[in-house]
Write a structure and sequence with these properties.
Blueprint: E1 2-13, E2 16-28, E3 33-37, H1 44-51, E4 59-64, E5 67-68, H2 74-84, E6 85-88, H3 100-108, H4 117-123, H5 139-151, E7 157-161, H6 169-186, E8 189-194, E9 205-210, E10 213-219
Parallel strand pairs: 3-8, 3-9, 6-7, 7-8
Antiparallel strand pairs: 1-2, 1-4, 4-5, 9-10
Helix pairs in contact: 3-4, 3-5, 4-5, 5-6
Length: about 230
């Protein structure tokens, strides 16, 4: 699904150079659930933003199904994000004046082959909360609405940046269950950023980040169900 070679990202702040990525090599496979694990500032979010077409690289290459993301124009990146990628962030970014169904409909109205909002919300266990507004939902439920919004356009890739970072353990488990369900039922290639070591056990593979590089990779021969995660 993704092939990354020698990816470098340097940010300039005045005369200071910040090396967010220092030569990352990575492959992500179809229907894989991968966890990117590491402390803040280790390069995880920068990599995810480049894979999602939200940021550009300084050097190196990133390919999606053979197409080079790092060589795309702004117009091509917009089309790539719209047609292929779903995003889930730590904060839900729901529109307060719209119901759960209406928040998901914002995506389905501009997608070429969307699922119905009710179907997407049902996949994350919110079929009974379709007409509730964000203020009427718990934090975990709001995050699951955000996941439903991301998957409603049937993306090939789901990129999640600290999706449980603002949640307690109980609601965090509910969000992880929604993500693993989407991965298993829809076959969506899923990458989850976290600094919570325990979450790594739900993944097929874990990439450990440090100082802008992948320092270690682990294959989980036996994945742990979200309900078994020791927070």
């Amino acid at each position: 699904m993704f092939a990354v070679e020698g990816l470098i990202k340097i940010y300039h702040t005045g005369e200071l150079e910040i090396h967010a990525l220092a030569g990352v090599d990575l492959a992500l496979y179809e229907s894989e659930l991968a966890v990117l694990l590491g402390p803040s500032g280790s390069g995880k979010s920068t990599l995810l933003n480049i894979l999602g077409g939200l940021d550009t690289a300084t050097a190196g290459s990133a390919h999606f199904r053979g197409s080079e993301i790092t060589a795309m124009s702004e117009r091509e990146l917009t089309r790539y994000r719209r047609d292929h990628v779903g995003f889930v962030f730590q904060f839900y970014n729901l529109i307060p004046s719209l119901s759960a169904r209406e928040n998901v409909s914002l995506v389905t109205e501009i997608s070429p082959n969307p699922m119905k909002p009710d179907e997407a919300l049902g996949l994350v266990g919110l079929g009974h909360r379709l007409d509730h507004f964000p203020a009427q939902l718990s934090g975990g439920e709001q995050q699951r609405v955000a996941i439903a919004r991301a998957i409603a356009k049937r993306p090939e890739v789901l990129l999640c940046d600290e999706p449980t970072g603002a949640l307690d353990s109980k609601t965090g488990v509910q969000v992880l269950e929604a993500l693993t369900s989407v991965n298993e039922e829809l076959g969506t290639t899923t990458a989850v950023i976290t600094h919570n070591v325990a979450i790594a056990d739900i993944a097929h593979r874990v990439f450990y980040f440090g100082d802008g590089k992948i320092v270690r990779t682990k294959i989980n021969k036996r994945r742990v169900a979200p309900s078994k995660v020791q927070w």
